[in-house]
Records
---
Amino acid sequence: MRLAIYPGSFDPVTNGHIDILEKTTRIFDKIIVSVVHNVTKQALFTLEERVELIKESTKHLDNIEVESFNGLLANYIDEKKACAIIRGLRTVADFEYEAGMATMNKILIPKVDTIFVMADTKYIYLSSSGVKEAALLGGDISLLVPPIVKAGLEEKLKDIKL
Ligand code: ADP
């Protein structure tokens, strides 16, 4: 079975992430979306909330599992017997960071490669942080995130005073 891991912060999941999942679930037998705690980013949603939002937003895809994990990605991939890591590429700005991470993971777990999928043109400039900022400032994010995520953001941000 060709199993791939799609790791990320997903704080929160956007239509850009869902698009990558719609594409890669056609290529692999199964995708595990792995929500990780990124030490360099202050999260708005808890790991559990992020997992739940992804599960709710991917009900139309049947070969997906969603979970969170802590620790080294290479060990986790080995444990799951995955054959690939999925990452999305938007602009050239993503490339440097992603190339560094893919190289490190290739050294740590040589039998597994990182597969990059280009973002859809309509999602090239879409990021979780951009969505949070737009929502905080009262922007309409309906075209950028699934409805459940929009509702979750409204709930989270309603008590934040600017
Ligand atoms: P990170 O894991 O670096 O904290 P994210 O959780 O935002 O980043 O994203 C997880 C993966 O999805 C990364 O490979 C990122 O480049 C990719 N990604 C983020 N936004 C989009 C988008 N709009 N379209 C396609 N891929 C995306």
Note: Helices lie at 15-24, 47-57, 73-80, 92-108, 128-136, 147-157.
---
Amino acid sequence: MRIVIFGPPGAGKGTQAKKLSEYFGIPHISTGDILREEMSKGTELGNVVEGYMEKGELVPDHILNAIVRKRLENESSFILDGYPRTIAQADALDEMLSEMGKPLDIVIDLEVDDEEIVRRLSGRRACRKCGTPYHVEFNPPKVPGVCDVCGGELYQREDDTEEAVLNRIAIYKRKTRPLLDYYERKGILRKINGSGTIDEIFSNIIKAIGVEK
Ligand code: AP5
């Protein structure tokens, strides 16, 4: 099973990708998580990408393409979250997967309006250790500030400030949303309403994938 989970910032990609990963027992590959890990380790790559990420700008395509190629080399199944985000990335992904003989099965597009995105991102918290996403109101941890999964500390992302969120939404519309046509033409796009409870949306995604565990 090779899935891309697609949608604007805050659509619930990470939340649903984690559930799909547990359900199907396949890796969740989030380019945002990979980049944040590099930043927190203070690597050379982390230092390069920090300025882009804090402002909500896209990191250059060649960096992402190289990261994803390396990460996918040894995986036959995966859920890709946050990549591709530009036509150049989609072309690169197509090329690498066809070289590897493992084409995508489905692209799930989570559709959420701008007002809801701002509500979700302003209340989002994430675990510093394992990246599990929470929301102070819609999906709170059992103990405030503490991750249910690993006990790690919860924090608010630097790019969840209002200015960065508005920039991310604008960039999504300009550079990323055109990919919907790209995957529609390939016949593998499935649109899912991203409003509703996390469990309702998950169940609709499973129906769209059409494969029960
Ligand atoms: P990335 O980490 O991918 O951020 P994003 O796409 O902006 O998406 P988010 O992680 O903000 O949202 P999400 O859709 O995963 O929502 P979540 O499940 O957390 O990328 C960050 C940055 O990295 C980019 O800006 C860029 O700089 C760089 N980058 C990454 N990939 C790149 C690429 N390919 N090319 C170039 N640059 C790249 O949910 C959000 C909140 O809502 C949470 O609090 C959650 O609990 C809550 N929630 C979820 N579902 C529901 C629901 N149904 N109802 C109520 N609340 C909900």
Note: The longest strand covers residues 106-111.
